[in-house]
Amino acid sequence: MAEKSVFKFREASKNPELQKCLQHNGKQIEFYCKDHDIVCCSTCAVITHKKCDSIVPVEEAACGIKNSNVRDLTMDKLRKCQSSLRSVVAVLEANNRKLQTQTSNLRRKLVETRLKVNHLFDEFEKTLSSANDCMYEKESSRNTLQADRCRHLFTTVEGCVTILESAVMEGKEEGIFVILKQIDSQIRGFEKIIDQENSKISLVNLFFDEEIILENFLLQKNPEELIKIENIHEGTHDLEKF
């Protein structure tokens, strides 16, 4: 509303000899209300200021205005308004310049921060990869050693099979009987070892959770703790599924 009033006043002031009422377009300013210290048109005087005690014609109120200090006081007020507005504009422009500088600095710091984060993540990745490799070596070595033991036992069992087959094909019954009993006693040992190896089998998955990885990276936690081993099978039951 204030901006509209200023606009109307600016338009009306283009012709100082024909000042118009800001409230009633086209109406000539004719009166001055001393109670409200405001000039008005005849419509304003009748409607808005009908209860006011001191309404006089503009000609009467303006008598001697040229020789009074009212004009100077008003001009001083206007100049103070101008000064205040210049100060406001200066503060706003200075703030914009500061914001521009801060924005440039923030962009630069973001680039620097990204480089630091990239470096930190490179180191984090190295440690994580190393932990992953160590776990692989540990699990792979354990599996390889167990497989070697089983292969060695398999060779021993295979030798017994060969001996028994040869005895059946070429030997006498007494010899076959002795070999059967000897092999039978060894089979009990084989079965015991096989049961032990079977109980030691542990199939695992190596995995990590991406969200947990990111969270722990941001918190700078030890990456070696993030590689997990999940036991998915123990024993040789249903191994064909794997």
Automatic annotation (TrEMBL):
Classification via SUPFAM superfamilies: B-box zinc-binding domain
Q: Which InterPro entries would you find in this protein's record?
A: Znf_B-box
What Pfam families would the database entry show?
Answer: zf-B_box
Protein's UniProt keywords contain Zinc: yes
GO MF annotations, alphabetized: zinc ion binding
Has the keyword Nucleus been applied to this entry? Answer: no
- Going by the entry's taxonomy, the superkingdom of the source organism is recorded as Eukaryota
What keywords appear on the UniProt entry?
Metal-binding, Zinc, Zinc-finger
Give all residue intervals belonging to the B box-type domain.
16-58
Q: What is this protein called?
A: B box-type domain-containing protein
Provide the organism lineage as a comma list. Answer: Eukaryota, Metazoa, Spiralia, Lophotrochozoa, Mollusca
